[in-house]
Amino acid sequence: MSLAGKTALVTGAGRGIGKAIALRLAKDGANIAVNDLNPDTAKATAEEINDLGRKTVVVPGDVSDRDKIFSIVDEAFTELGSLDIMVNNAGICQTKELLEVTPQDLEDLFRVNVFGVLYGIQAAAETMKKNGGGKIINAASGAGHTGVPQFSAYSATKFGVVSFTQSAAMELAEHKITVNSYCPGIVDTDMWAELDKVLGPKLGNEPRETMTTFAQGAVLRRVEVPEDVANFVSYLAGPDSDFMTGQSVVIDGGMVMR
Ligand SMILES: NC(=O)c1ccc[n+]([C@@H]2O[C@H](COP(=O)([O-])OP(=O)(O)OC[C@H]3O[C@@H](n4cnc5c(N)ncnc54)[C@H](O)[C@@H]3O)[C@@H](O)[C@H]2O)c1
Fold first, then answer.
1. Which residue has a Cα nearest atom 40 of ligand 1?
2. Is residue 207, in this structure, part of any structural domain at all?
3. Range of the domain at 142
4. Angle between helices 226-237 and 16-27 (to 10 degrees)
5. To bridge 30 with a disulfide, which of 6, 111, 204, 239 should be the other Cys (CB 3.0-4.6 Å)?
6. Domain harbouring 155, CATH code
7. 223 CB within 6 A, ligand 1
8. Are strands 85-88 and 56-58 parallel, antiparallel or unpaired?
């Protein structure tokens, strides 16, 4: 119970990696504020957290709305009594050839993946500064360390997350706030199910074949599961990572090596 008595807010926790993180941190002992754009899935995650015996609050809303994320952090703090851990997990993806990427694609992707993460850092830091520190953890990606064909705009957003992670770590250290990111590979979530629907027909693949083929690029040769990521985030959220900040660590079965 490394997080007993701690409080975490996890964005995009209605499904996929965010849900696995919220449940894992709850198992570690933390009370959890559950955010998602979709209030129904957020509520369902919160119910599972309640069943684990933790306190929880549902704080739905769009992380790319700056005022909203500040009010979400306030509500989490008021309802649960503290904010020790902020996980800026919510994100969206897109697969498209670079020459086809539109201004609207860029707006949509950057608004959630980069603006949303920065606003989450700002909102959490404001509260954590007053309360003696905390841990901010962001969703980057292996695609935040190397460009990826067919994923250029998404990859650029994740490079942005890596950059904000480093700058935030430098500026917030004096307030005892650490900032790190997790960088998954090919994780079996609804996000990949949607990518598979677009890429599969282009590549002449059966459903799920694209995801499993891409995952063969990992030396551990399997598709990643959300719990692989959640296990690492548990470390980032806990006391064993206290001396770590500014890092964006790849957790992908050995696909991208840094
Ligand atoms: N799945 C992968 O292979 C993979 C790989 C690397 C990084 N990531 C990153 O991990 C994070 C989670 O990915 P996932 O696979 O679980 O995705 P997912 O699409 O399965 O789940 C994302 C959740 O975030 C929510 N969300 C989306 N936009 C939001 C917004 N503006 N405000 C609040 N909530 C919002 C969605 O409703 C959804 O519940 C993302 O940042 C993603 O870029 C995923």
1. 91
2. no
3. 7-186+225-251
4. 50
5. 6
6. 3.40.50.720
7. no
8. unpaired
